[in-house]
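ugh ok fine here u go
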Amino acid sequence: MDLIVDTNSILAALIKDSTARKIVFKSRFKFYAPEIIIKEIFSHIELISSKTGFEEFEVRTLAHFITSYFTAVPLSKYEDLIPQAQNLISHPNDFQFIALALAIPNDGIWTADKHFEEQNKIKIWKTGDLLKLLPQSA
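structure:
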């Protein structure tokens, strides 16, 4: 399964040993995210460190490991679809995920944000939905 991943799912996998992290590490899904989001996560290493209690180098190391499971897609691959995406979702921070989902073959967007559900063009996957798709031994 090929999934576009919202920022909150990436952060959930980074911040604690969670279901999101299990999905990233134990699934055979292919994950995609806008390149700018991956860069943004690294710009907040200090903040994530202060919230988790981990040293910055530990957070940075884990962030590199987790994001190695993601394909960072440059804006040039989906920027022409941004106007269409803005018509589908009103939340200004999320149109890039919609545009990316419109630009590349995928099975939907993995997110916990409810406002993605205001559109019906792209399938939305919740963490619990994906957990059910993991092998039982995972």
